[in-house]
Amino acid sequence: MIKVLVILIFRTIQGSLLEALQDFLCIIYSPLPTPSSDTLIENLKLTQLQIELDCTICLNIMQKEGIILGCGHIFHQDCIQKWLKRNQICPVCRQTVTLQSLQS
């Protein structure tokens, strides 16, 4: 809520009150993330990696294995499990993660 007030005050100082109120309403009425099902999280499969890649959630290197989503993005197992418990979309491309996309 503090973030919303700061944005509202900043936008009011910077521009018009109308723009500030529009920003405020967009923040308040934006949809909440939908968590993934436990079944989906249980179906994540570790894949052996041929090269070292960076996990875009924690920014650390994945040395041996990672989870590949249907969209092709790769993450540490712990990182993507925590993410999907809160949000059912890929943190990089925003594509919805489904059981069908994991199996393709």
From TrEMBL:
GO terms for cellular component: nucleus. GO terms for biological process: ubiquitin-dependent protein catabolic process. Keywords: Metal-binding, Signal, Zinc, Zinc-finger. Residues 1-15 form the signal peptide. GO terms for molecular function: ubiquitin protein ligase activity; zinc ion binding. InterPro entries: RING_finger_E3_ligase (IPR051834), Znf_RING (IPR001841), Znf_RING/FYVE/PHD (IPR013083). This is RING-type domain-containing protein. It comes from Halteria grandinella.
